[in-house]
């Protein structure tokens, strides 16, 4: 989390929204663009913050270990010049985020990569990919979400694709392709894939609130897309959506959470669903 003071100074902090506790991180010099990622090492039980700057020199990237007596930033070397552009996700001790690879000799040449950072050993590896909109944790595996609007037999469609990294070493991906008709999604401005629920549904969300604000629950195995309306938001405000956050720890029933007075749900009928394909791809780099 970044906090601006007097519209100038930027304070970086780690916050736990359940306990309300926070830690202010040591100051860093300002860059034109930078990203901070939180990773967890399950072996040594350590949280670490990775700071990636762009444009950057060899000493501009930093890493910090939380919970130490004296927190300090350490230099860390990244062998690939890249421009991060997504939020990070940590799965089994590996932090992933999307980036554009910058080829210095050919300034206009760009390719997309998934940056893989081993939190324990503090090493970078990379996977060449087509561009995903967002990365998610799908059943303990890295997943990539992409979507587009199309047309089939004169009807507008919403085409949703999901890749799942089945083999990290061989770069083998399974892929789900699902197509929904216009009346199933109502063509709201879906712009974010915010994560996965405990019932293995992918949560898609709008970025800005309007008269009607919706989140969507996509189940690639059941080929369903459920729309949930959330009321009470002001128009034109920026909305940040987080999955599986419960303010009251005594509320553990998902059905109870979805039955609130300001939430209404609509689910497409079985005959309205379109085809969903599952394929296995091998991407060699």
From TrEMBL:
Signal peptide bounds: none
Organism from which the protein derives: Arabidopsis thaliana
InterPro entries hit by this protein: F-box-assoc_dom_typ3, F-box-assoc_interact_dom
NCBIfam families: F_box_assoc_1 (TIGR01640)
Top-level taxon of origin: Eukaryota
Residues annotated as domain F-box associated beta-propeller type: 12-246
UniProt protein name: (thale cress) hypothetical protein
Transmembrane segments: none
